[in-house]
UniProtKB/TrEMBL annotation:
GO terms for molecular function: acetyl-CoA carboxylase activity; propionyl-CoA carboxylase activity. Pfam families: ACC_epsilon (PF13822). This is Acyl-CoA carboxylase subunit epsilon. InterPro entries: ACC_epsilon. Residues 58-78 are annotated as: Disordered.
Length: 78
């Protein structure tokens, strides 16, 4: 930015109230910088649906569904 340019640079952080020490302000800027770095390090999730062909849960045994007459002869199924 040159001296003849009258437009000021946008403010990243502005203290509205209170007396902030240099150490407190540096700690706050470090937290913001760390959060920004962590957000940029995580890639965006894959929008495609997840493939479940190798899911281990499919190999577990499940109880077969009850036949339609199970509740008619309820004493037999207990």
């Amino acid at each position: 930015m040159s001296e003849s340019d009258p437009t000021p640079a946008p403010t990243f952080l502005q203290v509205e109230r209170g007396n902030v020490t240099d150490e407190e302000l540096a700690a706050l800027v470090a937290v913001f910088a760390g959060a920004a770095a962590a957000a940029s390090a995580n890639p965006a999730p894959d929008p495609r649906p997840r493939e479940m062909w190798g899911n281990v849960v499919d190999n577990l045994r499940h109880q077969p569904p009850l036949p339609p007459g199970a509740f008619v002869n309820q004493r037999y199924w207990q």
